[in-house]
């Protein structure tokens, strides 16, 4: 009997018991034991040079179990009414874009420039900071303030109403000045 077979015969029942206490499904225990045996088998003749085969097997098992937990992602199904609410919110926000050209035209040149570059053209805050010769914190503050002023102006000018959850409930569309 070679050293791997001997070590496996001696320690597999203990490993199985240890894994059963840590895994929910019996098939997961069998899968882990199989993976562990394959890892030991890949060691080839090197396995015989391991001073404490039991310690090595348990260490590899602990690491494999940790990897399994890291990769395990559990998902919860959202209730259908939540998904529908999100679609309704997006639709209301999409409709609100009708107000955007007029509101943008009424903002200061600096605010228009910030919102146009970062929000409409997709320039990152770091790129904006570099283009404007600003520190990143200064650029972030400028962007945040411009967004707040635009939101406040849009809320006022388009008479945006929010429901109790803070979602857009209704608004009055405003056409651009050029269309009047």
H and E string: HHHHHHHHEE
The tally of strands reads 2
Spatial separation of the terminal alpha carbons: 93 Å
Radius of gyration: 31 Å
Number of helices: 8
Average per-residue pLDDT, rounded, comes to 83
- Read across the widest sheet, the strand sequence of neighbours is 1-2
Query: Any idea what the shape is?
Result: elongated
Beta strand %: under 5%
Proportion of helical residues:
55-70%
Structural class: mainly alpha
Low-confidence stretches: none
Q: In this structure, how is the largest beta sheet organized?
A: 2 strands, antiparallel
Give the topology.
Elements: H1 3-20, H2 26-42, H3 53-71, H4 80-96, H5 100-105, H6 109-120, H7 125-131, H8 136-157, E1 161-162, E2 168-170
Antiparallel strand pairs: 1-2
């Amino acid at each position: 009997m070679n050293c791997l077979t001997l070590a496996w015969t001696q320690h597999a029942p203990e490993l199985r018991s240890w894994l059963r206490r840590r895994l929910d499904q019996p098939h997961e225990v069998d899968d882990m034991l199989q993976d562990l045996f394959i890892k030991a088998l890949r060691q080839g003749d090197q396995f015989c040079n391991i001073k404490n085969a039991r310690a090595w097997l348990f260490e590899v098992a602990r690491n494999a179990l940790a990897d399994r937990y890291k990769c395990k992602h559990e998902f919860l199904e959202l209730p259908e009414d939540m998904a529908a609410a999100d679609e309704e919110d997006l639709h209301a926000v999409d409709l609100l874009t009708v107000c955007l050209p007029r509101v943008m035209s009424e903002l200061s040149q600096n605010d228009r420039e910030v919102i146009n570059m970062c929000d409409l053209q997709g320039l990152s805050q770091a790129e904006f900071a570099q283009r404007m010769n600003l520190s990143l914190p200064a650029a972030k503050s400028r962007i945040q303030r411009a967004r707040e002023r635009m939101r406040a102006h849009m809320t006022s000018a388009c008479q945006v109403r929010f429901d109790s959850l803070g979602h857009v409930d209704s608004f009055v569309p405003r056409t651009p000045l050029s269309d009047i």
